[in-house]
Amino acid sequence: MLSNKEKFIFTSELALAISNGLQIEEGLKMLAGFDAGVSHCAKKLMDIMQDGTSFVDALKQSNDFDEYMIQMVVIGQSIGNLDVVLKELSVYYERQKKLNYQIQDAITYPFVLILMMFVIVAALIFKVFPIFENILRQMSMSLSLMNTARILSYIGFFILLVILVCGVILYILYKKSSNKAWATKLPFFAKLNYQTEMTKFTYILSLFVSSGYSLIDDVSI
């Protein structure tokens, strides 16, 4: 599966090629000269299409593209506006790329903050408290307040440790996951993802309406 960045390059460049009068095969030849991921995908598509396989079927067989792109290409070809659809897909994948960066930042920032708090609490427990404890012992003062503070610090240390471990697991899962859709279900990003899905839906409707289809036909399709 291509990354959102690679799909952005693929769709934007292929849209440019088609809008300039080139055939899909010619556009793919042009893409074969790009970076490794895009180049490998373009060559794979050309190989698949050599025996007469359609562009859409080649996209499906390549396993490099998501279902949304495949369906949009079907729509683009059916209404004769493939270059326009590919251009809009490039905008969509650019937004998805930025969304992934936002999710990564949203996971990384709290993780770094909790790590700093963890280090501070650990320093208090293992460095600062023993010094104060020795001072109080030398002054023959009660250690009850110090013991209470130590207990609370241990509790805080344990809580931060649990949060830190959960954060590490979440970060590793996000980095290793090929499908990051689950991350869009996090509280803030769920709303953003809903807005993205609505944008996709309204754009598809606008494509059909501008191509002469009625609203009822659009919904049924």
From TrEMBL:
| Domain Type II secretion system protein GspF per the UniProt entry, residue ranges | 10-130
Pfam families xrefs? T2SSF
Q: Where are its TM segments located?
A: 107-131, 151-174
Instruction: Give Gene Ontology CC terms.
Output: plasma membrane
Main location as per UniProt: membrane
The cross-references to Gene3D superfamilies, in alphabetical order and at most eight, read:
Type II secretion system (T2SS), domain F (1.20.81.30)
Q: Where in the cell is it found?
A: Cell membrane
What UniProt keywords apply to this chain's record, in alphabetical order?
Answer: Cell membrane, Membrane, Transmembrane, Transmembrane helix
Q: How does it sit in the membrane?
A: Multi-pass membrane protein
Q: Which family does it belong to?
A: Belongs to the GSP F family.
Protein name per UniProt: Type II secretion system protein GspF domain-containing protein
Species whose genome carries this gene: Holdemanella porci
